[in-house]
Transport protein
Amino acid sequence: MIHAEAPSGLAPIPERDRLQALDALRGIALLGILLSNVSGFAGPLNELREGIDPALRGSDRVLSAFVYLVVRDKFWTLFALLFGMGFAVMLERARVAGRGFGAVYLRRSFGLLALGLVHAWLIWGGDILVTYALSAFALLALRSLSLDFWLKLGLTLYLGTIGYMLIIAAALTLPGVAEGDAADLAQAQALRAAEVAAYAHGDYAAVTAQRLEFFFDSTIAGWSMMLPLSLGLFLIGASLVRGGVIADPARHRWVLRALVVHGLPAGIVLTAISVAIDSAPSLALFSASSIFAQALHMLAGLPVALALVAAVVLLLHDGARWPRVFAPAGRMALSNYLSQSLIATWVLYHHGLNQWGRWSYTTLIVAALVLFAAQLAASAWWLRRFRFGPVEWLWRAFAYGRWPPLRVRGQG
């Protein structure tokens, strides 16, 4: 369990009480999410395929393969695990303080929902915050259940959703079960063309209308898969913290080593099988091979993410310093996530600098790395002066019902 002195009341967690491994992991996850989101910033969200783009050549193809094999489905999974870990930290801290938890976390979840809707409707359509907020309401309702129940339910939700995809893939191999046809492809092509027209040529009003259409037509439809996946990952992550694995790595070294030794090879094998089945699975036409490949690729995300969590926790416990470089960005993960979308859409969309379609994939990846390096430096600078990122500060003020101190003592 997490041990801390009992404070006088619920408030944001002081820096000295934070689990630095979680901040470092959030920063690492933020980089992976940015690299994964590059194609969604610079291309339509209603894409016809995912995976390794067969039309790319040279460094573009190499980087496309790297992102799909190493990053895609691994780092949003990591971020979801970390969300659940943060929940468990807050819950234990409230228990130690002897204060109620539900009202604060409920306001926190409503605050995240509001931020997510602003992001999805007004900034970028590929938002994940709304999904996380909705899953957080369910997470709160399960807070009083046992650690064993959390872990079993989390695995059931996650693996059950993947299993459902595999059942669909198997059903599509049966005689008489129809796969996608020309009408499905034509509809997908029309949606894609409308999105490209809005982002490449439209003003802000046209882009906003396109984002709203995508949210109500595609994002909500995707919740049937994403909500159980997210909640399952939240519960798995929360179980690691509640069981003491993160806070006491010396005692649980064997668990952490097992996650690395078994998780990384399992993720590599599943990813390899997925790519062998279909390296560019269709998102427009339902087929047994494309769904099977997508399901296995998604399944690979969990063991890799768990291996990364375990590796960073062990490295920090053994004295490694390099993961700490990511911690400031992780402490400001929400501010950095939103600013990535603001900057990318302003640079690429027609109502901004109008660079849509003008940058190669290599240029986009390099730009993303430069942006993240700037965020690392800016986060470190900011946190030497302020206790929270700007969005985190507003979010906490809403959750706790009062303005928490922002400036670091001695900084004015």
The radius of gyration is 21 Å. Residues 90 and 125 are 30 Å apart (CA to CA). The chain has 14 helices and no strands.
